[in-house]
Amino acid sequence: MGAGEPEEVLDYPIPSPAALEPPPEWARLRDRCPVARVTLPSGDEASLLTRYADVKQALSDPRFSRRLTAKGAARIADSESGGVFSSDTTDALPQSGQGHLKWRRMVGRWFTAKRMAALRPGIEEIAHRLLDDMVKSGPPADLKAGLGFPLPVWVICTLLGVPDSDRDRFAYWSDTMLNLTRYGDDEISQAQAAFAAYLGSHIEAKRSAPGDDLLSELITATDSDGERLSDATLVATGKALLVAGHETTATMIGEMVAMLLSDRRRWKRLLADRSLVRTAVEEALRFDANPGIGLPRYISEDTEIGEHSLAAGTTVMCSMAAANRDVAVFANAADMDLGRSPNTHLAFGSGAHSCLGQALARTELQAVLTVLLDRLPSLELAVDVAELRRVEGLPVGGLREVPVRW
């Protein structure tokens, strides 16, 4: 804070007065208190980073660990089970060093540009089918429920080689894993146990009858030392892919469209110039004011961040969304520039733990936007922007619904 001002402790996530607008505190914190004290939903305290340089450093520096189960680390979720931050999820996947690099290389083989290009026609096909149903029912419609949620679930079911008929269960399991305040401990524990049991049985079935999917490939894949992934790691990988590939992309589809339609000049510009689809997706990722809680990190030694000192035992919250509005990095950061290039946003993190599925997310977002522009050029919000409502109780943020008409 400024000289002579008492240090305040903010509740985190910081609320915003409008669904598509950033909290006004972000600019103040970046300017005057880039390492701020905050209270998490669990009641524990952490340090919040809001400047681009600081957030990028914390996400790239191996001293800032993902080991949130370490003694003294702040609890993120308001539940004993911890949801996606639970020990069962984090301990089964190597979090650092050579183990993490080996796991990432094995899983990353699937997310090549060639595979993503091969997936795109199928993604566009399912988008057309979902829009067929929306158009048949007629406007107004909830774009998030009709398109944003079912499409990423279909993609993840395809990647994991599970029946599309199980997508409703996958959506529920994803919700419970991402819990902050929405579900109780018993419900979370039961859901996660059911999901782990499902994946365990599914992996056994894939051993007997492998398919053309990621889990079938990982069951027999070996790392550079000739070792295979354990069943526990395979289950944890399936969990991680569900969370990373479902809820986050689903919320971003809805928010991207809402941002573009909130000022219809943006939509019209894309209708006139489809070459902007790729950069528009990147700008939507940067401009998103409601991506959720950000990424937590824990330090076990005294560490410097920028010009600030952090004591061992500190849990840090990295707000990529606040960093993505940093005027020191992005010219006219408060404006949505559909042609912005280069666009070095941090929506997918940075460093060794940057989002493994970011190529898939980009493919989905670009495919959905292209199909929407083709099918529904007259698309517009069916409510005033001020009536849009944020999701509460999950760390991924997003809008509760995106009412549209055409």
Automatic annotation (TrEMBL):
It comes from Amycolatopsis acididurans. This is Cytochrome P450. InterPro entries: Cyt_P450, Cyt_P450_CS, Cyt_P450_E_grp-I, Cyt_P450_sf. Its cofactor is heme. Keywords: Heme, Iron, Metal-binding, Monooxygenase, Oxidoreductase. It comes from the Bacteria. Belongs to the cytochrome P450 family.
